[in-house]
């Protein structure tokens, strides 16, 4: 009888990235440890809170929900899939063998999913002495998020030599089928969890009028509608020169993203050339790297030629945006009644207009030149990391 090994031969937990991918031993171990540890600690705290302070919900307020039943079914299906996978990998497939990480993943699946069902039932049938809830608790939402993230991390192994994405054997095809079922189940659990069909809302707006105050509402409420309202102010419909400036600014922005990708690549090439034999001075790579750094700028990328040129060209667009917003504001003010103007102070109105215009400009600049480029950089880095 062979001794139980935690990882397969030639696979080590100390080596994270090998052969263009991450081993199944490492992925299953880390995901199992994080998910089970989180649910064990915070789920137990939540259960203790319900046991000590929870009150049973009125049966009249608990309605039937097919989505809730479907959610429970999916949570019960996942440990069954874990058992099927364990049996196939440990006893059925060619070269099958049981490893320690497989036992750990199975134990976590048999513990975590039923435990989450217990929490789900508690949230459905019991209430805590707080403001009436309109969704699931933070523990379950984060747990389902971690489950979905764990399934998406597998895509890092698209080019992994030992991954089942190649579908070259029957084992790979079965593994891929189980993955599709798991991925679909966790996706539905995550989406249904956001809708919270099993939670009966007892929220009464008339009892909590203070919550209806706009000052207490989230800044991101109706964010998409707000963006659709603001975006027309960015595109100068009547000025072709300004339209060309907008397009050219976005071209410069995309060029900066490409340069951010190639700067570390050429840095690597220059460093690697120092260890080559015979030693040669790669002045061509150095010149390319210096040119890229000149275009990119300093450590934060804010002093480069591309960013400064884009900022200079964007001044006219920002002036156009400010002018259009203020004209629209004045048009709206002129359409208001005399009674409204008599009840307002002119200085206060002008101050609100100035602050509002500046806030809109700052918001658009943050979205276009800070948030969006950062998201693009992350996506490009992930794709390059996977394909490299």
Notable traits:
mainly alpha; 11 helices; single chain; two-stranded antiparallel ribbon; 388 residues
Please characterize this protein's 3D structure.
The protein has 388 residues and is an all-alpha fold. It is built from eleven helices and two strands; from the N terminus they run αβααβαααααααα. The chain has helices at residues 24-53, 66-92, 100-125, 138-153, 170-195, 223-230, 240-273, 283-296, 305-334, 338-342, 346-387; strands at 55-56, 126-127. It has a two-stranded antiparallel sheet with strand order 1-2. Helix 7 packs across helix 11 (346-387). Residues 203-212 have low confidence and may be disordered.
> How can the largest sheet be summarized?
2 strands, antiparallel
Tally of alpha and pi helices:
11
Please, what is the average pLDDT?
Answer: 83
Lateral arrangement of strands in the main beta sheet: 1-2
Outline type: flat
Uncertain runs are 203-212
InterPro entries: ABC1_TM_dom, ABC1_TM_sf, ABCB6_N, Type_1_exporter
Organism: Culex pipiens (House mosquito)
Keywords: ATP-binding, Cell membrane, Endoplasmic reticulum, Endosome, Membrane, Nucleotide-binding, Translocase, Transmembrane, Transmembrane helix, Transport
Main location: membrane
């Amino acid at each position: 009888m062979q001794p139980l090994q935690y990882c397969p031969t030639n696979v080590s937990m100390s080596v994270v990235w090998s052969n263009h991918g991450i081993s199944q031993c490492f992925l299953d171990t880390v995901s199992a440890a994080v998910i089970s540890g989180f649910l064990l600690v915070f789920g137990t705290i939540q259960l203790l809170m319900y046991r000590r302070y929870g009150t049973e919900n009125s049966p009249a307020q608990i309605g039937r929900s097919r989505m809730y039943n479907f959610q429970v079914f999916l949570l019960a299906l996942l440990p069954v899939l874990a058992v099927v996978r364990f049996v196939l990998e440990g006893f059925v497939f060619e070269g099958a063998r049981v490893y320690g990480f497989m036992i750990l993943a199975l134990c976590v699946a048999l513990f975590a999913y039923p435990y989450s069902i217990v929490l789900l039932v508690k949230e459905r049938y019991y209430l805590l002495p707080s403001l009436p809830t309109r969704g699931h608790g933070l523990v379950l939402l984060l747990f389902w998020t971690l489950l979905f993230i764990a399934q998406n991390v597998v895509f890092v192994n698209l080019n992994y030599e030992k991954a089942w994405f190649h579908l070259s054997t029957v084992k790979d095809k079965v593994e891929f089928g189980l993955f599709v079922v798991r991925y679909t189940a966790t996706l539905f659990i995550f989406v249904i969890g956001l809708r919270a069909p099993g939670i009966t809302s007892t929220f009464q707006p008339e009892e909590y009028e203070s919550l209806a105050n706009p000052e207490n509402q989230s800044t991101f409420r109706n964010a998409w509608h707000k963006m659709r309202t603001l975006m027309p102010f960015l595109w100068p419909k009547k000025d072709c020169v300004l339209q060309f400036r907008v397009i050219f600014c976005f071209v410069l922005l995309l060029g900066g993203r490409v340069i951010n990708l190639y700067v570390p690549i050429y840095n690597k090439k220059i460093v690697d050339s120092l260890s080559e034999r015979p030693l040669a001075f790669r002045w061509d790579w150095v010149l390319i790297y210096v040119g890229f750094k000149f275009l990119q700028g300093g450590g934060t990328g804010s002093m480069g030629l591309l960013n400064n040129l884009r900022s200079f060209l964007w001044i006219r667009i920002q002036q156009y945006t400010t002018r259009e917003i203020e004209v629209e504001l004045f048009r709206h003010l002129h359409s208001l009644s005399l009674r409204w103007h008599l009840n307002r102070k002119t200085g206060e109105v002008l101050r609100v207009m100035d602050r509002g215009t500046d806030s809109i400009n700052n918001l658009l600049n943050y979205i276009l030149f800070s948030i969006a480029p950062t998201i693009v950089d992350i996506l490009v880095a992930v794709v390059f990391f996977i394909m490299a």
